[in-house]
Write a structure and sequence with these properties.
- The complex is a heterodimer of chains A (430) and B (187).
- Chain A has 16 helices and 19 strands.
- With 430 residues, chain A is α/β, with parallel strands linked by helices.
- Chain A folds into 2 domains: 3-246 and 259-265, Aconitase, domain 3 (2-Layer Sandwich), CATH 3.30.499.10; 274-427, Aconitase, domain 3 (2-Layer Sandwich), CATH 3.30.499.10.
- Chain A has a 5-stranded parallel beta sheet. A 4-stranded parallel beta sheet of chain A has the order 3-2-4-5, with helices on one face. A 4-stranded parallel beta sheet of chain A has the order 9-8-7-10.
- In chain A, a hairpin with a 2-residue loop joins strand 15 (344-345) and strand 16 (348-349).
- The N and C termini of chain A lie far apart (45 Å).
- Chain B has 6 helices and 7 strands.
- Chain B has helices at residues 18-21, 34-43, 89-97, 109-117, 167-172, 175-181, and strands spanning 4-11, 72-76, 101-104, 122-125, 139-143, 148-151, 156-159.
- A 7-stranded mixed beta sheet of chain B has the order 4-3-2-1-5-6-7.
- In chain B, 54% of the residues are buried.
- The chains are: A alpha/beta (430), B alpha/beta (187).
- The structure holds iron/sulfur cluster.
- Iron/sulfur cluster binds at residues 65-66, 105, 107, 126, 128, 302-303, 366, 369-370, 390-391 of chain A.
- Iron/sulfur cluster (SF4) binds next to helix 11 of chain A.
């Protein structure tokens, strides 16, 4: 069995499972946020009763993150609904807006707060819940109905997915990041190439990555249509998890004779920086193919491109430079926002590097990654051409249907921000 | 699940993502308050680029600008229908507009699952590409038992893939009814 099949079998109380089997499994963590939490709660109450208790308080995590810093009253009401529910159920893992506990983007918050532990099953009402698979666990996004069923019973049905294996060999050159690798895969298999399947990442270049970059890989498994992304855990994983939680966990590994749907091998030493052109994450081009494209805006943020390492990469290029187009910086979580003030490069904090370069820095949340209400930080309103470290560039995703969004690594975005046109990071990296 | 679903077809292309089905800015309305809930019907499929709204013609909104219900009952799509976010508001918005079934060449899995588990719309897979064979406004009928679609406007009949395992959930109404019947949840 593959690692995914084994985790599912363990949680279904079975010796083994085979791709295609429909099984009911136990859920270790359920996560929800401000957009899908309120309707989930409403369905939970409708089905289990007004006074029903959630199946296990310690396993439910609520992290509002989508529409936070807005005056939109519908959006603010959603956070109120979460607040009332958390109080009524005395939930220990509610990360309320306006308190010290507020985290920001849920997928990174789950990692920072120690909820991502190897071997577990984790479901969330957000398609990028597959991010957590970077920790060697089974995680996937579900709708509100499925989440409400989990809230009441701790169980859910899954169809066991076949696994596609992606192996990255060689040592990653300094101008490439995990974002380039995953954009290459999505371009190659298409945005439905992984539908119903698992994307498992393997190979020396993957194990050389730290947890943040591994999360970038798994985050975009859904952009290939996959059910989950997964990376077997190693010492790097254990080290990260031990710093964040004292809870025990049992790592799971695939068998030597595991069967895969397919395998693709990449030699990272010969790969180039990649972008996804408008309006689909699988619309792949090398940066050199689109170099010179005029831009109006650059954006570094989101669960996939707003982690400390993403800002460190951007700062390598922006230090001592001035941006040529408006450039937005949105740390995914409040912990990362703090780190921008603490972590330095060449004696300057990342925060100062960005401010001196003329960037605008926003508060931790999803912000313009998904458009949001008109007053959202960094949202497009017009025909802007944007280069962004986010994960989706569908029409209207960042707000305006007329805008065009290129997806790229933080290195490529920063290089392009400096010149105002799409620029290969190799041209500016020293 | 009805045995026969009949009404006007609304045709769209490939990769209809959840932002096109219901743009993110509209996700804030209550799903229970009737005066807000109906807004999901008004804005269903409003994110589809205007030139592709109602193929092969274009510029035919799914729901008229001041209406809450659509005149179309069956949505015909290409590959990877419902890709993008996990928002259950997507199949819900279609249902709220009055849509009963989607027939697409393939689906993104979360949309498919949401449609089934919530009992919002019946997601059929077509065996061939119907986007080029059916026009927006054609009078079509799905026999859910036979898994077959008849275009009464042209007289053509197309086979659909049988629903398989999920038919039991659709028959029960939604996943909760199914779980109750299976003894997984107290009734
Ligand atoms: S940052 Fe973007 S992709 Fe990530 S959870 Fe928020 S909206 Fe979704």
């Amino acid at each position: 069995m593959t690692i995914t099949e084994k985790i599912i079998a363990n949680h279904a109380g079975r010796e083994r499972v085979t791709p295609g089997d429909n099984v009911w499994i136990d859920v270790d963590v359920l996560m929800t946020h401000d957009v899908c939490g309120p309707p989930t709660i409403q369905i939970f109450k409708r089905e289990f009763g007004e006074t029903a208790q959630v199946w296990d308080k310690n396993k439910l995590v609520i992290m509002p993150d989508h529409y936070i810093f807005t005056t939109n009253h519908h959006a603010n009401r959603n956070v109120d609904i979460l607040r009332d529910f958390a109080a009524e159920q005395t939930l220990p893992h509610f990360y309320d807006v306006g308190t010290d506990r507020y985290k920001g983007v849920c997928h990174i918050g789950l990692a920072e707060e120690g909820f991502n532990r190897p071997g577990i099953t984790l479901f969330g009402t957000d398609s990028h819940t597959c991010t957590s698979g970077a920790f060697g666990l089974f995680s996937t996004g579900v709708g509100n109905t499925d989440a409400a069923l989990i809230m009441g019973t701790g169980k859910i049905w899954v169809k066991v997915p076949e696994t596609m294996r992606f192996v990255f060999e060689g040592a990653l050159p300094p101008y490439l990041m995990a974002k380039d690798l995953i954009l290459a895969i999505i371009g190659d298999i298409g945005c439905d190439g992984g539908t119903y399947r698992t994307m498992e990442f393997d190979g020396e270049a993957v194990y050389d990555l730290d947890m943040q970059e591994r999360m970038t890989l798994c985050n975009m498994a859904i952009e290939g249509g996959a059910k989950n992304g997964i990376i077997a855990p190693d010492e790097v994983t254990f080290e990260y998890v031990r710093q964040r939680t004292s809870e025990a966990f049992e790592p799971v590994y695939g068998d030597a004779d595991a069967r895969f749907h397919s395998e693709r091998v990449y030699d990272v030493s010969t790969m180039e920086p990649i972008v996804a052109k408008p309006h689909s994450p699988d619309n792949k081009a090398t940066v050199s193919e689109v170099a010179g494209t005029k831009l109006d805006r650059a954006y570094v943020g989101s669960c996939t491109g707003g982690k400390l390492e993403d800002f460190q990469a951007a700062a390598r290029i922006l230090r001592g430079q001035e941006v040529a187009v408006e450039t937005y910086i949105v740390p995914a979580t409040t912990e990362i926002a703090r780190q921008l003030h603490e972590v330095t490069l060449g004696g300057d904090t990342l925060y100062d590097i960005f401010i001196n370069a003329g960037c605008q820095i926003g508060k931790s949340s999803c912000a313009a990654c998904l458009g949001g209400p008109p007053d959202t930080f960094g949202r497009t309103h017009n025909t802007e051409v944007v280069i962004s470290t986010t994960n989706r560039n569908f029409p209207g995703r960042m707000g305006s249907k007329q805008a065009s969004v290129y997806l790229a690594s933080p290195l490529t975005v920063a290089a392009s921000a400096c010149t105002g046109v799409i620029t290969d990071p190799r041209e500016v990296l020293v | 699940m009805k045995e026969i679903i009949r009404g006007l077809a609304y045709v769209v292309g490939n990769n209809i993502d959840t932002d096109q089905i219901i743009p993110a800015e509209h996700l804030v309305y209550s799903l229970t308050k009737p005066d807000e809930r109906r807004l999901y019907g008004r804005f269903a499929l409003c994110g589809v680029p205007v030139a592709e709204q109602g193929l092969p013609y274009g510029e035919r909104p799914f729901t008229q600008p001041d209406a809450y219900k659509s005149e179309y009952t069956i949505v015909i799509g290409g590959t990877n229908f419902g890709c993008g976010s996990s928002r259950e508001h997507a199949p819900f918005a279609l249902q709220e507009a009055g849509c009963e079934a989607v027939v697409a060449e393939s689906y993104a899995r979360i949309f498919y699952r949401n449609s089934v588990d919530g009992g919002f719309v019946v997601p059929f897979e077509s065996r061939t590409r119907l986007v080029d064979k059916i026009r927006t406004g054609d009078d079509v009928e799905i026999d859910t038992k036979l898994a077959q679609l008849t275009n009464h406007t042209t007289g053509e009949v197309f086979l659909l893939n049988p629903l398989g395992d999920v038919a039991d959930i659709l028959k029960a109404g939604n996943v909760f009814e199914y779980a109750r019947q299976a003894g997984l949840m107290p009734s």
